[in-house]
Write a structure and sequence with these properties.
Radius of gyration: 26 Å
Organism: Thermotalea metallivorans
Shape: elongated
Oligomer: single chain
Protein name: Zinc metalloprotease
Order of helices and strands: HEEHEHEEHEEEEEHHHHH
Keywords: Hydrolase, Membrane, Metal-binding, Metalloprotease, Protease, Transmembrane, Transmembrane helix, Zinc
Number of helices: 9
GO molecular function: metal ion binding; metalloendopeptidase activity
Family: Belongs to the peptidase M50B family.
Length: 336
């Protein structure tokens, strides 16, 4: 039950942010919004606003923002179809964009809560080379083999690539005294990793958390795009694709580790959701964007009813694909 509730919260967060992007952009563009829905299927809760109805639906697998004139002809001046092309495109793109923003926010929470390792040493492990060389807790590493050190990652990288050769390390003590030592890394028992026996001081930095969050989001986006490219070229396996059931299982596994694992997994899903929604497939944001691009090139819009029918067919096919993926997830994770 705990896994299911956690998964619902994760799905809900992703859907709310995605649809909130469409909703805010639509309101800013002056589009009339009839409904802001979280979930699919029958409605079990609704709140009527001045113009928009806010609703929760039974199936937690998506959501939507219902706008005037989005899939049908409308003479209303505030209809989606009567807005400038740039405004309509911004409304469509805003959903996936909010997924990327959500990922950045989640990563900021994680990085700030956990903190960053610094170049200052908090602990020296007894019996390992650092202790024998005279390195002490409180020392800060300035240079290794003449190279100025700016981060803990650099220290780890240099030690791991040392091939057990002697390293010349320059440090500064808590009293401000510089010293140089020679340390020969050793291989960590049971792992292919070289160590000298030091642990870093952890500090929290909001600016560094923000920078790291943007870098992590871009890194994950690049990985996702590489995977999709390999998938279309037949160089990746569709077995790596999971659906809602698989995600619920993986959320449960992440919840067993820590709340930060859940947040990190939610950020990954949010990025994937944003990218997948931008694919040029009918019923997805990318499919709608494709029609708008065609309109910009041809100078005339596609008939709204015809476009709506294409999106409906695309939605049905996506639901059939979803059912197939759910079946694969159940067998893969041996859930029943």
């Amino acid at each position: 039950m705990g896994t299911f509730i956690t998964a619902i919260l994760v799905f809900g967060l992703l859907v709310i942010f995605h649809e909130l992007g469409h909703f805010i952009a639509a309101k800013l563009a002056g589009v009339k919004v009839h409904e802001f829905a979280v979930g699919m299927g029958p409605r079990f809760l609704k709140i009527k606003g001045k113009e928009t109805e806010y609703s929760l639906r039974i199936l937690p697998i998506g959501g939507y923002v219902k706008m005037e004139g989005e899939d049908e002809s409308s003479e209303d001046e505030r209809s989606f179809g009567n807005k400038p092309l740039w405004a309509r495109m911004s409304v469509i793109v805003a959903g996936p964009l909010m997924n990327f923003i959500l990922a950045v926010l989640l990563f900021i929470i994680i990085f700030y809560a956990i903190g960053f390792p610094t170049t200052k040493i908090s602990q020296v492990t007894p019996g390992l080379p650092a202790e024998a060389a005279g390195i002490e807790a409180g020392d800060q590493i300035l240079r290794i083999d003449g190279k100025t050190i700016d981060s803990w990652d650099e220290i780890v990288q240099i030690i791991n690539s040392s091939n057990n050769r002697l390293l010349h390390i320059a440090l500064i003590s808590p009293k401000g005294e510089e010293k140089e030592v020679q340390v020969q890394p050793v291989m960590k028992a049971g792992m292919k990793q070289a160590v000298i026996g030091i642990s870093p001081v952890i500090e929290k930095s909001f600016p560094r958390s923000v920078k790291a969050s943007f870098n992590r989001t871009i890194f994950v986006m690049q990985g996702m795009l590489d995977f999709l490219g390999n998938l279309f070229r037949g160089k990746a396996s569709a077995e790596d694709v999971v659906g809602p059931v698989g995600i619920i299982h993986l959320v449960g596994e992440a919840a067993k580790v820590s709340i930060f694992s859940v947040l990190s997994f939610a950020a990954l899903i949010s990025i994937n959701l944003g990218i997948v929604n931008l694919l040029p497939i009918p019923a997805l944001d990318g499919g709608r964007l494709l029609f708008l691009i065609f309109e910009g090139i041809s100078g005339k819009p596609v008939n709204p009813e015809r476009e709506g029918f294409i999106h409906l067919v695309g939605f049905i096919l996506l639901m059939m694909l979803m059912i197939f993926i759910v079946y694969k997830d159940i067998n893969r994770f041996d859930l029943f």
